[in-house]
Design brief:
Strand content: under 5%
Number of helices: 4
Radius of gyration: 14 Å
Shape: globular
Order of helices and strands: HHHH
């Protein structure tokens, strides 16, 4: 991936450990999301790409839900592009909402596991 990564703010060793722990429980969700956004699960480090997507999506949710924050144009555009990736080819909002929830849960669970590994 080009540019900055959502994982840049995390210690690499602890982030890798947290990702491995998370993937044990959420491998189906990782694969489902990868398929939905059209990212092949056969590429090297595809799990990190999906995790980055989820962390970015989590940031989007915070930007959308915080009434006291005005987001910059580039962030809004990025978030809308991510929504388009999730919604592409879906026939109803239930499918879209399910994928949004998967992305949100992966990000939140990763952050929770990361905090625990950071203190070990």
């Amino acid at each position: 991936m080009q540019g900055s990564s959502a994982l840049d703010g995390y210690d690499r060793k602890n982030a890798d450990k947290a990702l491995k722990m998370l993937y044990v429980d959420k491998s189906n969700e990782f694969r489902e999301l990868a398929e939905a956004i059209g990212y092949p699960a056969t590429k090297k480090d595809w799990e990190k790409v999906i995790l980055n997507f989820c962390l970015d999506f989590d940031d989007c949710f915070k930007a959308w839900s915080d009434e006291h924050t005005s987001s910059e144009h580039n962030k809004v555009h990025k978030c809308m592009t991510m929504m388009r990736q999730i919604a592409r080819g879906k026939t109803n909002m239930t499918e879209v909402t399910k994928l949004q929830t998967i992305a949100y849960r992966i990000a939140e669970d990763f952050k929770s596991i990361y905090k625990r590994t950071d203190t070990l």
